Amino acid sequence: MDAYVHGYAEEESQRLYDQSKMLRDLFHRNVHYPAGSRVLEAGCGVGAQTAALVKNSPDALITSVDISLESLHLARTAAGSGVNFLQADIYSLPFPAETFDHIFVCFVLEHLSDPLGALRKLKTLLKSEGTFTLIEGDHGSAFFHPDSAEARRVWNCLVDAQARLGGDSFIGRRLYPLLHEAQFQEIAVEPQFIYADAGRPEWVEWFTVKTITAMVKGVKELSQQMGFINEEDWERGIQALLRTAAHPDGVFCYTFFKATARKRRP
Predict the structure, then answer these.
(1) Which of 122, 152, 187, 226 is most buried, by the most CB atoms less than 10 A from its CB?
(2) Domain boundary assignment for the chain
């Protein structure tokens, strides 16, 4: 991973766990790996998705890698036993070609300066006929009410900070083109639409507040260091964003993208 825009604070780890609990069925529906199959989770972070992989495929042989040693320590606790954790860079993973039957990647490409290069590297590690699952968000898909220039400004701080670090907040819309260019086969991309309003209070709390707003809050210091916004405007923007949760007519919409593909024999 080139640079993780959200940082490694305790609050970010909790946000990832909260997000995983709420969206587990959405992301891991139909993600089941056979007993004895070798699975690579590339970029496991704090293990928020690892725990779901283990629950759905308890007899698969799962290897989870991440560049952050601190995150791996947390991942071990979150996932429990049965996973081989390893510190490694996604561009230079220490495995022979065609090692894995399946590869799972979630919320990783958005942080990479060369996502296509990462996909090509990962493809070499996949056995012929092996499958690939890829999940990313797209910050350009966010719509909310009440809308305001103040809320949009802090939202764009996240987008701009990630771009400055070499990442892409709009990576979700690029999954099919990237997988196609990497010469995967049987590519299928499914939009995963999230909608939260006062009629779905659990989604307002867990998604609008604990996932989305918490994600934006996490880039406060970085955004100010980069000169995107001052303290006063930041606080005004966060309060405006929170009104989409507190307002009786508040609405927040967002789309994730889940792609599957296969490596066919040449």
Answers:
(1) 122
(2) 10-262
d(CA 15, CA 19): 6
Distance CA 177, CA 206 (A): 31
Handedness of CA 238, 241, 245, 249 (dihedral sign): positive
Helix axes 231-246 and 149-164, enclosed angle (nearest 10): 120
The tokens for 34 are 């056979």
How confident is the model over 89-118, as pLDDT tens digits?
999 999 999 999 999 999 999 999 999 999
Cβ burial of 59 (10 Å; 0-12, 13-18, 19+) is exposed
**Banded pLDDT at 126 (limits 50, 70, 90):** very high
49 pLDDT exceeds 70? Answer: yes
**122 and 183 Cβ atoms separated by less than 8 Å:** no
CA nearest neighbour of 153 among 58, 59, 240, 245: 240
Q: Output the CATH code of domain 10-262.
A: 3.40.50.150
3-state secondary structure of 258: strand
Q: Please name the amino acid found at residue 140.
A: G
